[in-house]
Amino acid sequence: MENVFVDFGRPSEKPLHLITVTEAEALLEKGQFGIGSMEPKIRASIKFLKGTPREYKREVIITTAERAMEALRGEAGTRIVLDSNRESSA
After folding, report:
1. Pairing verdict, β 18-20 and 4-6
2. What does the pLDDT look like over 34-81, one tens digit per residue?
3. For residue 1, what pLDDT is reported?
4. Which CB contacts under 8 angstroms, 24+ apart, belong to 2-11?
5. How far is the C-alpha of 82 from the C-alpha of 85, rounded, in Å?
6. CA torsion, points 78, 87, 81, 27, in degrees to nearest 10?
7. Which of 17, 37, 53, 58 has the fewest CB atoms below 10 angstroms from its CB?
8. Roughly how many angstroms between the first and final C-alpha of the chain, as a whole number?
9. Residue 30, Cα to own-chain centre: how many angstroms?
10. How far is residue 73's CA from residue 27's CA, in Å, rounded to a whole number?
């Protein structure tokens, strides 16, 4: 999977392209991410971003190795950003 999904495996399944840390935390709270699969990646992403000084405007990209170059160009994967960086990353 090249993206993180909400409602994974259901008819309402939807890929996420850009979410904030706050949105990721809310989706975690709702149980949207598999405990043994996506949840650890989301938790690590949140921890990394919250531990990064805001002036660095870092982001996390979750994708497959095969789509890494497209993800760096913003053409694939799911990007997670700090709330204050969403406008500059969109």
Report:
1. unpaired
2. 888 899 999 999 999 999 887 888 999 999 999 999 999 999 999 999
3. 76
4. 2/63, 2/64, 2/66, 2/67, 2/71, 2/76, 2/77, 3/62, 3/63, 3/76, 3/77, 3/78, 4/33, 4/38, 4/41, 4/42, 4/62, 4/78, 6/32, 7/32, 8/32, 8/34, 8/38
5. 5
6. -70
7. 53
8. 22
9. 15
10. 25
Tokens linked to 74 = 């913003």
Does this model's pTM top 0.85? My answer is yes
